[in-house]
Amino acid sequence: MTVLEKATRDVVLKPELLLLHILCQELQNAQLLHSEAISSGFRTLLSLLAEAEMVVMAVQSAHCLEVPLTHKGKLMVSKEYIEFLIHIASQNMEENSRRINRFYKHLELALETAASANNAPPGDEERLCPVY
């Protein structure tokens, strides 16, 4: 609280949970990533790079929290409310961590399934993976 009481400008609580950009060589890879991200609780945005014939996919957390705490140096909320916001932000971080783990596991399984469906030799999953 001491830091907020000494603030001379606006202070906003805005936890940034996850933003992941993935460059995919093929649309089918982006579709696979999109499906697994959505099923894991994330939002996605797709962008096509026409010249490179690639797709950029952004995976974002669905949780959003942006709360002004001070305005022009004046504390606008109570200490109890700040503690409540921190509790909510911590819960969102924990849920986001669970979603990241779920996304990783779903994606890993989907890539293994796709590789076996294409009769790809072991270790050739790179062909199906997005380019980082």
Automatic annotation (TrEMBL):
<dbReference type="GO" id="GO:0008033">
    <property type="term" value="P:tRNA processing"/>
</dbReference>
<comment type="similarity">
    <text>Belongs to the TYW3 family.</text>
</comment>
<protein>
    <recommendedName>
        <fullName>tRNA wybutosine-synthesizing protein 3 homolog</fullName>
        <ecNumber>2.1.1.282</ecNumber>
    </recommendedName>
</protein>
<dbReference type="InterPro" id="IPR003827">
    <property type="entry name" value="tRNA_yW-synthesising"/>
</dbReference>
<dbReference type="GO" id="GO:0032259">
    <property type="term" value="P:methylation"/>
</dbReference>
<dbReference type="Pfam" id="PF02676">
    <property type="entry name" value="TYW3"/>
</dbReference>
<keyword id="KW-0489">Methyltransferase</keyword>
<keyword id="KW-0808">Transferase</keyword>
<dbReference type="GO" id="GO:0008168">
    <property type="term" value="F:methyltransferase activity"/>
</dbReference>
<feature type="domain" description="tRNA wybutosine-synthesizing protein">
    <location>
        <begin position="7"/>
        <end position="108"/>
    </location>
</feature>
<comment type="function">
    <text>Probable S-adenosyl-L-methionine-dependent methyltransferase that acts as a component of the wybutosine biosynthesis pathway. Wybutosine is a hyper modified guanosine with a tricyclic base found at the 3'-position adjacent to the anticodon of eukaryotic phenylalanine tRNA.</text>
</comment>
<keyword id="KW-0819">tRNA processing</keyword>
<dbReference type="InterPro" id="IPR036602">
    <property type="entry name" value="tRNA_yW-synthesising-like_sf"/>
</dbReference>
<comment type="pathway">
    <text>tRNA modification; wybutosine-tRNA(Phe) biosynthesis.</text>
</comment>
<keyword id="KW-0949">S-adenosyl-L-methionine</keyword>
